[in-house]
Structure formats: C-alpha cells, structure tokens
Amino acid sequence: MSHKYISNFTGAEIEAILNNSDSLYDINVSASGTFTTSSTTVPADSTRSEAEGYWNGYLLVPIEGNALGEVREIISFTAGTGVFTIESTAFTSATGLVNYFIIKPEFYELFQRYVDDIVGDRAYTEDNYVTDEESLTDSIDALDVEIKDVNERQGDLDYTEDNYVADLASHTTNIDALDIEVKDVNDRQGDLQYTEQNYVTTDDDHTSNIDALDKQLLIASTALDEDTATLYSVRLVQVDGKPVLEYEEVL
C-alpha cells in the first residue's frame, strides 16, 4: 500500500479541517504524538506504550517538517522503543522530530475525497504548465512564472507612436487593428499581380511601377508626328492616392 500526500496543508490546517469535518478527527485520527527518532523508513516515538504490533496496518502521517502530509502504511510497530517500520516506499525526507498523526486506513480515502471537494481533484484535462496531482501552490506558481515570461517576450505594450495600435490595448485588439489596416491597404493597392508584364513588374513597389509608366508615356507622347496627329503632353499624377493619366494638348 503506497500513498502520496494527504494534501499540501500545514499540520494546523489539517487539524483545523478535521475539527470542522463532522468530527472526522475524533472518529478517524486514532493517535498523535511527536517523533523522538527521525528517519525515512523507521521513525520512532519512544513515549508510546501500546503493545507489539498494535499499530500494524494503520497509516502514519507527519504533519510538520519535510515529509509533511506524506502517508505511509505501518508494517510493524515495536513495543517499548515505539519504532514504526513503514512500507517499502520511504518518506521522501527524514521525518524530523515533529508531530504526527496515526489514522485508520479507511480514513485516507474519506479525507482525500473531502479535500477534493474543497480544492478540487487537481486532475487537468491537459497538462501544460500545471501538472495533475501537484499542489495548488505549485500550479499557481507555474502559471505565474509563465505569464511573466509571456509578458517579457511581448513587451510592455507601450508604443513610441500610436497609429493603428494603442498603448495598453490587448494584443488581440492591436493585432486586429493592424490586420484590418493591412487588408485595407491591399484592397486599395491591388495584389500587384499583372496579366502581362510590360513596363511594370509583378511585386515591384507602386513607386517603381508608376515611375516606369511615367517614363514610357513621356517617350510615347513626345514621339508623335506633329504633321499627322495632335500632340499631347501626358503625365501621370496621383488623385486620391490612385494613379491617373493627365493629358494636355501641346499648341
């Protein structure tokens, strides 16, 4: 039989829960005391007076120290010396000379269900930054650390000049504003994909393309035969942000 933890509570908190849980403490905590020998496998309380094997099969729970809340089955109890020999799974740390509870085996599941009702069972749908069965403190700490890391990667949301994004607006709001503006720009400019490349070039910028057209139109307009055609001066201008050909008859 191997258990992990009752909970990540202090001894005082465990006792307070028991005392406010329909007399669970009186019914299920069979004894309490203070270890006189610290150990990961054979802690002892030399003040105990019970007979040989009296506590065999019960659960031993340190309620203070480095092994706080860890639950282990007592395989054998030695009269006189008060040695508790626990199951093969040792405490993760030596118990220390701290207070402990001895509880009935059937109490463990009952108490765990009670704790689960209070703090949840800590079984998550998907483990990302928090992990099933870890303490609430560890889970909150893991999330806190990750949120700080995210904020540091993203910056402080203070911009040198507010245009389409705004100081302290959420990333979603700012990305949405930029997305809308980029779409509007593309709609105004077109996709720069031409059916046939002559004087303008696919994916070249508008300035280069307008300049190329302007030069070509100038060449064409000045090359007209003055005896057979009306001579026009043609230039390319922008009206409302769009390229427009402007013609003027040359007298």
Question: How would you explain this protein's 3D organization?
Answer:
By secondary structure, the protein is α+β, with helices and mostly antiparallel strands. The chain folds into four domains: 2-119, no CATH class; 122-155, no CATH class; 158-190, no CATH class; 206-249, no CATH class. Helices cover 33% and strands 19% of the residues. It is built from six helices and eight strands, in the order E-H-H-E-E-E-E-E-H-H-H-H-E-E. It has helices at residues 11-19, 24-28, 105-119, 136-154, 171-189, 206-222; strands at residues 2-5, 29-34, 59-62, 70-78, 83-86, 99-103, 232-239, 242-249. Strands 1, 2, 3, 4, 5 and 6 form a six-stranded antiparallel β-sheet that branches. Strand 7 (232-239) and strand 8 (242-249) form a beta hairpin. It is rod-shaped, with a radius of gyration of 40 Å. 14% of the residues are buried. Residues 1-5 and 23-27 have low confidence and may be disordered.
